[in-house]
Amino acid sequence: GKRGWLSDGVLRHIEALGLNDRVRLLDYVPSEDLPGLLGGSRLLVQPSLYEGFGLPLLEAMAAGVPVVASNAASLPEVAGDAAILVDPRDVDAWREALRKALTDEALRQELIRRGSRRADLFSWERCARETLTVLERVGGGR
Q1: Could you tell me if 101 and 111 are in contact, meaning their C-beta atoms sit under 8 angstroms apart?
Q2: Model-level pTM?
């Protein structure tokens, strides 16, 4: 997505740590490119303080990518038990969560399994079906 208000500082830290060749901050990614991009990912990390919905979590889960996300805003509701949730301001907790998500293979597989189930709950097909049910109920079945 679009660069945020702390992007410049993040970019400086990435450079200072010598991680330019290992970390990429992407702008808009077309939806048809997401499966390939996510499929090559080891982990999705979303440390947001503010988030409208959290669609990237579900996109990663649907692609079989484990998620570590902030426990703020809408993210806990979207993630359910299918992600490691962390206080967005607790650096030590983030360090530990990322270490576990990258090194504990049993945990990774469990997050992938739960994530797949969680993503299924938010499919566009299901959304359309439930919306139609509500509209039929409100409209008296017409």
Answers
A1: yes
A2: 0.81
